[in-house]
Amino acid sequence: MNVAKSFLFYCRLLLIACAIQGVTNTPAHAAEDKLATTELLPFDKFDEYLPGETLPHPWHTIGQFSDNLKVLLQPWAESRVTGNLYSGKGVEIFDNSPTDGQGIGFGMTFTQAPVGPILLAFDYRVDKRVGEPDSIKLAVHLGRGVEHGLELLATVKDGLQIKTFDGSLLKLYDCEPARWYHVSVVGNTQSTDVKISITPHTNPKKVGFRSMPKPGPYVDVKLAHSLGQPTDVTFTSVAEAKATGAWNIDNVCLAGEVTSPRERWWPFVPDLSNADPKRKVFAYYFPPFGAGRMDGDPTLGWAFWSWQNLAYDLDPRRRDAGCKMQYIAIPRVPDLSGDKYRAKEIEMQEEVKLGQMMGMDGFIMDFNHKTAGGWNWFNMIGDKLLDAAAKTDGKFSVIPAIYSSSSGSGVNGEADAGCTPQQYAEHERTLKCLKHPGTFKNEDGKAVMSMWLTERHSPKWWSQSLDLLQKQGVPAALFTQFNSMGKIKEFSPIAYGMGHWGPRAPTDYGWYKAARPYTDVLAYPIVAQDARTRGASLVEAQNSRTIRKLWMDAITMKADWAVINTWTDYTEQAQMPSTAIGFTLFDLNAYYTQWFKTRKQPAIVRDVLYYCHRRQHTDAPQMHGVRWNFHKDMNINDSPEHNEIELLAFLKEPGTLLINVDGKIHRHKADAGITSFMVPLPKDKRFVPYFAVERDGSQVLGGKGRYTIYDKVDFPNLLYHYGAIVK
User: In this model, does residue 572 exceed pLDDT 60?
Assistant: First the structure.
């Protein structure tokens, strides 16, 4: 029976079952009220690991292995769908034993996905170079432990099949040896209905998502049970023991509801009822990067492709780092409407929701008079953000950072020559942003505008622009984002408020002292780290010391605003929920935001252990790339390298902190409150740190970190990775 006929036959069975027996969407795997999150769901390209090695934690292998039975990371298992032909890898399930091998594979157990939409995507192929490809069978299971909400089977003979509501197998697509296939399954934790798309990679001479044909149509399938809130995914070889061959798996992605509640993860009770209305928190939003929500599978998009990939269009300045971005936003379940503008509308609504959850007042969003370089699209994204903010009745707003058409840059008004104040003030983009109901208004009712590197235009130029806007009936106020401190006094007569791009290390710098006498609205920068693939350079942030110091400076110096720099700029540093950092910076920012706005430290009501470390020693041997450069910060210090593992504990009661580093136990007595405990990160060791807090000689909270630390690496990755342990 061919694919079309088998699907029609399945549809008839489904209609009969629904009409006669009734089919409900009652979840078969309803979860208790436990922790749920998207940050711990599997999302891996496998490219940053070393070839020929076993999968690192939190992945695990399944079965017994030998020279003829292996599950290893291999360069030839790199999917052509993304096509990182330089440092790419995938997982090979290798069975060359005619007497054994049934059940070998790999998987991951994770904190359950939140209630709501869910996506499972991956690439697979039969590797015909070994064994008898016609004899092997792959099983993919997604569920809770031994209970499987989703079961897929693949063989050369029967193609890719899915187990349906009545236990029968429905063929979805052929399975040709040596050809890569991309699988995308979209559903909901509370439903038995899923949509499945299969897309083959058909051009053997090209790689990358742009070489793929149009994604296959999504087919509706009804499962026997709802997907539930899954906690496990596995890929196993399940053919008879005599079967031999190899499967290649790559680009595994499980995505869920990113805006699910976070309160159960927080050490405090969120309460901004006593917030000082004059204290505001904004985050800088750089629209070329973001959550990457699409009208289709996000793993078939630009952001996923550019992540950890020496792609063919990579800026030459980034080639030594091996990629454009070392981390990206936690993926979103796609909107399947086929409307890319609707997808961005949903994405911006999610961004506003996340911002409000964190306690922010709004975003500072870039707009541009230019249309080249994608700015028509980026301006559209900004418009969608303004629209989403406008629906909050002023509770959340956007400060538009509107760039002129001038290409001049510098700190002494170099951009004046390329754009007159009249051209700027009368430009359609300027007026559209400032008139929008989603734009932030100050206490005088003026629309507040901004621009990064404000001093690229002179104070005179800005003054004339503001006057021209006033004459057009569009009164506006300027919030500066300086990248220097030489023009503070000159801008004082015209600036409503002043912000500075800030340091990238926990060092004292003179922003507050320099600016406080000249502005009534002083904004303090909130930065976590700065690691740039452009030029393979970074500043030493010293784990979480930088972000904690900046927040405490903002609080103790009584700054008026705090500005998170940045929310989305992954080429420098981003703090939105992302790979590598999870929700930890989001959660820490929520705590300090409440402290900053209420002027009172939030009480700690539950123990939470945050951890922060790199995935390697800075001197770890590397296969590719250059050794990264540690730069000075604000020309103040030499940014010495640090190699430490940090446990940042929020404790409701005193306890003893514990870090296990490759079998060596470190302990530290801690009072109730916030304690940072640092221990050395050793060189030449591969291990997973363990973190805990003890009371009365027993562990009351503890667990492994999410990240393996490596003794040697492919391309270096010197980002500080973050995670959290909560009971």
Answer: yes
Lowest mean pLDDT: which of 199-208, 251-260, 632-641?
632-641
Q: CATH code at 175?
A: 2.60.120.1160
Distance CA 187, CA 30 (A): 15
Euclidean distance between CA atoms 116 and 258, whole angstroms: 10
User: According to the model, what pLDDT value does residue 638 have?
Assistant: 64
Which residue range forms the structural domain that includes residue 98? Answer: 3-255
Residue 156 CA, distance from chain mean position? 36
pTM value surpassing 0.90: yes
DSSP 623: S
| CA neighbor of 576 nearest in space, from 111, 38, 41 | 38
Question: Average pLDDT, stretch 652-664?
Answer: 99
Question: What order of strands is seen across the sheet that includes strand 655-661?
Answer: 664-670, 655-661, 690-695, 698-704
Q: In angstroms, rounded to a whole number, what is the distance separating the alpha carbons of residues 260 and 41? A: 14
Q: Is residue 265 situated within a structural domain?
A: no
- Residue written as token pair 């401190």: 485
Domain harbouring 720, CATH code: 2.60.40
Residue 216 per-residue DSSP state: P
Q: Which residue has the tokens 């040596």?
A: 178
Q: What is the pLDDT of residue 16?
A: 34
Q: Is 134 exposed, middle or buried (0-12, 13-18, 19+ CB in 10 A)?
A: middle
- Tokens at 390, concatenated: 């406008």
